């Protein structure tokens, strides 16, 4: 469990990077961050009517100094955030959630990210390398402009492979088209993934087929971000083999890839512990 803080943060800069925005906040109260932690940002301003905080992976942070996020301005909340500028103050709760677990041994690892899912990967790569792990990175996106972190991740990895659906950069295709071969070549033992749910499911399957342990940072819709509302639940198999609906904001967002019941996400499977019986009895 992280020691999250609610903080008023002043925007130091907000700059476009490809299709995304890179937000750097002055965060003098910022605690230590681990890769995979996220921040919950209040959007819309006081009286703006947007009650729910928006979740973003923490890209980088200097404890007691800064907090950096990468976001896509898609919906109402992120579009509002995109209109803010240096000097404006926003309300942030961070760091939240359970981060990626690092291996005890210096094993070969593959980091797989889709689009802005690359945001937490630089920090993760640095920490893995500090433990002597080999780090191979696969970055994927629909098109070149939606790639994030190509240059920075190149600088902190042993190899970097890019895939795009339309072939505008790197290999034409999906991250999973190159993953198995890369894992075999480097005898990868651990796979870390962040990106859209369909990508995570496919990556977890390839990892399992190749005998590797996978951890996936899921992106379930969140409302409170602190474990109270149950908006973010998904079916996960526990150590005892029993499926439970778990809250991705506090028990995740990072889960073992082989434990998430990917085909049942957004449902409550019948065999889930405490599931309502058919017909409501
Ligand atoms: C743990 C976690 C980490 C996350 N990390 C990041 C991150 O690092 N960067 C980031 O940009 N987002 C991230 N997200 C996703 C982000 O929280 C949501 O996209 C959020 O809902 C955006 O708020 P909004 O108000 O803009 O859109 P909403 O009002 O929530 O949505 C409005 C509409 O826009 C669509 N929409 C929203 N976002 C997207 C999108 N990214 N792509 C396509 N359609 C979209 C929605 O489906 C909806 O139809 C993360 C989510 C979680 C749970
Ligand atoms: S977002 Fe409210 S419990 Fe997870």
What is the CATH topology descriptor of the largest domain? Rossmann fold
Helix/strand structural class: alpha/beta
What's the count of strands?
15
- Number of separate domains: 3
Low-pLDDT sequence parts: none
Bound molecules: flavin-adenine dinucleotide, FE2/S2 (inorganic) cluster
**Can you tell me the CATH class of the largest domain?**
Alpha Beta
- Major beta sheet summary: 7 strands, mixed
Please give the radius of gyration in angstroms: 19 Å
The topology string of helices and strands comes to EEEEEHEEHEHEEHEHEEEE
First-to-last CA distance = 36 Å
Mean pLDDT: 95
The geometry reads as: globular
Helix content: 10-25%
Fourth-level CATH superfamily of the largest domain? Nucleotide-binding domain of ferredoxin-NADP reductase (FNR) module
Percentage of β-strand residues: 25-35%
CATH architecture of the largest domain: 3-Layer(aba) Sandwich
